[in-house]
Amino acid sequence: MQVSTGVEVSAVNFEQDILRHLDSAYNLARWLVRSPLDAEDVVQEAVLRAFKYFRGCRGGDTKAWFLRIVRNTATTWLAQHRPEALEEEVLSRLPSPEAEPDAVYLQAVDGEVLRRAIESLPTLHAEALVLREIEGLSYKAIADVADVPIGTVMSRLARARKRLQEILGPTFRRVP
User: Fold this and answer.
1) CA 36, CA 39: separation in Å to the nearest integer?
2) Nearest 5°: phi and psi at 110?
3) pLDDT tens by residue, 104-117
4) Which contacts (CB < 8 Å, 24+ apart) does range 15-20 have?
């Protein structure tokens, strides 16, 4: 019978509790730093930070705990590499197509148009939208990740959704 040390047990728990959220971590980091390569760097640093402080994680929602570390790591990374990205971004409209595209064209560009629309949102609004609509986090979990009250999360989501409707309105017409 072999007795495992606390470090080995901690590593196993870390793998079970945290590493399963790497896809979500990368997704959040990519939206925050807006670069796939930079997102990989952010996630790698966040994993190191999470491992360092994992013993201090006392149960609860480990996904929200880890995504909060990813968010803080992304903020630090942006401050060091692109300080201008931390300023509130100016909202801009995506150009609307001149002619209504056919259904095949719409299917091909829907994902790209949506990605560009989300990228045009202020970072805090895009973050809330990605965490809720793409990652499926609850309002409470988003509040924990962003370290803001639930009301702020709700407000950011409402503004993000409204802005997306404004941006995508000319592109996507509702079918009655």
Assistant:
1) 5
2) -50, -50
3) 344 445 667 777 88
4) 17/54, 17/57, 17/62, 18/47, 18/50, 18/51, 18/54, 18/62, 18/66, 19/47
DSSP 61: -
The amino acid at 22: L
Question: What does the pLDDT look like over 24-81, one tens digit per residue?
Answer: 999 999 988 888 999 999 999 999 998 888 877 766 788 888 999 999 999 889 888 8
Task: List the structure tokens of 93.
Answer: 């409209």
The answer to whether residues 34 and 119 touch, using CB atoms and an 8 Å cutoff, is yes
> Cα(first)–Cα(last) distance of the chain, in Å?
68
> Tell me, what amino acid is at 140?
K
What distance lies between CA 22 and its chain's CA centroid? 12
Residue 110, amino acid:
D
pTM confidence score: 0.65
Which residues are within 8 A (CB) of 27 and not within 5 positions of it... i.e. 6 or more apart? Answer: 130, 134, 135
